[in-house]
Amino acid sequence: MIDVVCGVIEDSGGRFLACLRPEGKHLGGLWEFPGGKVDPGESSEFALARELREELDIEVMVGAALDPVLWCYDRTHIRLLPFRCSITAGHPRALEHERLHWCAPEDFDALAWADADLPILEQIRHGISTGRKTTN
């Protein structure tokens, strides 16, 4: 199983940063939360800060972990480890993605998301964006 981290970055207006994977790459044309693989010997938090620096040219403070997502793409099993993040320096730039888009939770369904990110969208819809989980 491969550990993959992703950043759930929320702006002051309650929108979340979505990144479009480039055509020709695995999951090309789908939207995702930015991040990448955890290298051997790295903590998840360090790996996420590194990945966001490399992909978006930003510095972040890695905050609370969300619920991990176990997913299988073809024969590759991943454990997706999402973390809330806040930008501490820089403005996101699409260095490795085709486009960036700030998206409100009510507009999530307008984007074609990578399957492993769908449970994260549900966590956000159920109160993670405000640091609270709601109960039904």
Can you tell me about this structure?
The protein is α+β, with helices and mostly antiparallel strands and 136 residues long. It has one domain (2-127): Nucleoside Triphosphate Pyrophosphohydrolase (Alpha-Beta Complex), CATH 3.90.79.10. 15% of the residues lie in helices and 36% in strands. The chain has 2 helices and 8 strands; from the N terminus they run E-E-E-E-H-E-E-E-E-H. It has helices at 44-56, 118-125; strands at residues 2-9, 16-20, 31-32, 35-37, 59-65, 69-73, 76-89, 99-103. The longest helix has 13 residues, at 44-56. The chain starts with a strand and ends in an 11-residue tail after the last helix.
In short:
This protein has two helices and eight strands. The protein has 136 residues and is of the alpha+beta class.
Low-confidence stretches: 129-136
Helix content: 10-25%
The radius of gyration computed from the alpha-carbon positions, rounded to a whole number of angstroms, is 14 Å
Structural class: alpha+beta
Spatial separation of the terminal alpha carbons: 33 Å
What gross morphology would you assign?
globular
H and E order: EEEEHEEEEH
Total count of helical runs of at least 4 residues: 2
Q: Based on DSSP secondary structure assignment, what is the total number of beta strands?
A: 8
The chain-level mean pLDDT equals 91
Please name the CATH topology: Nucleoside Triphosphate Pyrophosphohydrolase
Question: How many distinct domains?
Answer: 1
CATH architecture: Alpha-Beta Complex
Characterize the biggest β-sheet: 5 strands, mixed
| CATH level-4 homologous superfamily | Nucleoside Triphosphate Pyrophosphohydrolase
